[in-house]
Amino acid sequence: MNEGISEVEVIREIKDGNNDAFGWLVQRYQKRVYYLAFGIICNHHLAEEISQETFVRLWQSLKSGRFDENRAVYPWVRTICVNLTRDFLKDRKRQFRIMKEMIQKDNDCAKESEMPINMEKVGRAIESLQADKREVLTLRIIEGLSYQEISEHLNCSVGTVMSRLFRARLELKTKLEKLESQI
Amino acid sequence: MNNKCELNQEKISAYMDNELMGAERLEVEAHLAECQECKGMIDAFRNNDSLFAEHAQAPLSTSYWENYERMLKQRIAVRAKKTVYFKYILPAAAALLIALTVFYFIQHKTPPPVIVVVVMDSGAKQYQDILNKSESVLIGIANLDENDPQEIAIIKQALLESNLPEKIRELTIKSQNAKARESLKKLDALFTLLQNENSSIETKMVKDLVIEKSLIEEIRSQKNSSNEVKL
């Protein structure tokens, strides 16, 4: 598709049945959505699952005509993705099933994202944070949202966002310092 | 949090994110110029934020993303099929099933109960059990006397008044003794009447005929309270 095309035109194309147009949207946002999911979930396989489901839900919204073509697409995509991560974290049975699948795919995951050893330690520290702390850090650091925008996603006050971010950063600092001292 | 520091250290994080304005911002800036601990904290936060970003955004291979798109296309194709199934096919099948069920029940109305006319002798207690256990509507015709047309008329009247012809699916007479068997002839008129009213009635006559008189009164007392005459 033409690089100069606008998202509004792309959405119209998708509604008209142009599947290539949806591919354009996917290529535009796939990494961003994946990294958003990974930042919160901290697992490659799960991030893949959630990010893919995000695009499926987007596709369904666009096809059904529920999505207002004059709206920006990515904020809607972000909302879907964050909600899916939350739903996943609440659904213990699904977690267990996917964890079992992951055990079989662990080797493939390791090959896809090999990290330096120090980053592995960082990864361990981040993974040991609670999901809600990773969520607020991801929305601020990866997505670059303002406190007001984060408060709308988390359905809480700006003051709560400030407090939660500080505690998340403090805990991450403590964990990393502890890991450093173990070298 | 650091209890020695007078500053609310939550503001350090907000300052770092450019979320503080005006006096609050100036307050934190002034504090950071003097407090090494808070200065160290903000530096650590900035560094850790970079590590967090680097960890979350670790690059994946080009082949991974190509495979990602392929998997996504497959997933969407499967979901599209499921959408057609659940949105169109399943509701249509359910609607058809409901329509067929309604049609079936309309066509096959609940049949009227079987009327078993058991003419009982008061001494034949075994027939009482049959009457008590039967799910059919039963009429007991007591001591039918072939020479007593009045009695026949009472029975006939009781049947008509209870709207039984509409309810009758099967009419069976059981006769036990010779005299009662003779009485069956008197019931021919009843059978004819009932069959004329409802052609679906099947009438059967069997050998045993037992007569129980008290049942007539019971029928009369029940005819107003229920469409079914029960013993």
Helix-strand blueprint:
The complex is a heterodimer of chains A (183) and B (231).
Chain A: H1 7-15, H2 19-41, H3 44-64, H4 73-90, H5 92-112, H6 117-127, H7 131-142, H8 147-154, H9 158-181
Helix pairs in contact in A: 1-2, 2-3, 2-4, 2-7, 3-4, 6-9, 7-9, 8-9
Chain B: H1 10-16, H2 22-34, H3 36-56, H4 62-107, E1 115-118, H5 126-133, E2 137-140, H6 149-161, H7 164-167, E3 170-174, H8 178-186, H9 188-197, E4 202-205, H10 214-222
Note the main attributes of this structure:
heterodimer, A: 183 residues, mainly alpha, globular, B: 231 residues, alpha/beta, 10 helices, disordered C terminus
- The shape of chain A, in one word, is globular
How far from one another are the termini of chain A?
51 Å
Radius of gyration of chain B: 46 Å
Can you list the strand order of the major beta sheet of chain B? Answer: 2-1-3-4
Overall mean pLDDT of chain B = 63
Mean pLDDT of chain A: 84
Low-confidence stretches of chain B: 111-116, 118-146, 162-177, 197-220, 222-231
Sheet having the most strands of chain B: 4 strands, parallel
Q: Which two chains share the most extensive interface? A: A-B, 40 and 35 residues
- The fraction of residues assigned to DSSP E strands of chain A is under 5%
Structural class of chain A: mainly alpha
Proportion of β residues of chain B? 5-15%
Shape of chain B: elongated
The tally of strands of chain A reads 0
What does this structure look like?
The complex is a heterodimer of chains A (183) and B (231). Chain A is mostly helical and 183 residues long. Chain A contains nine helices and no strands. Chain B is of the alpha/beta class and 231 residues long. Chain B contains ten helices and four strands, in the order ααααβαβααβααβα. In chain B, strands 2-1-3-4 form a four-stranded parallel sheet. The model of chain B is unreliable at 111-116, 118-146, 162-177, 197-220 and 222-231 (pLDDT under 50). The interface between A and B is large, with 40 and 35 residues.
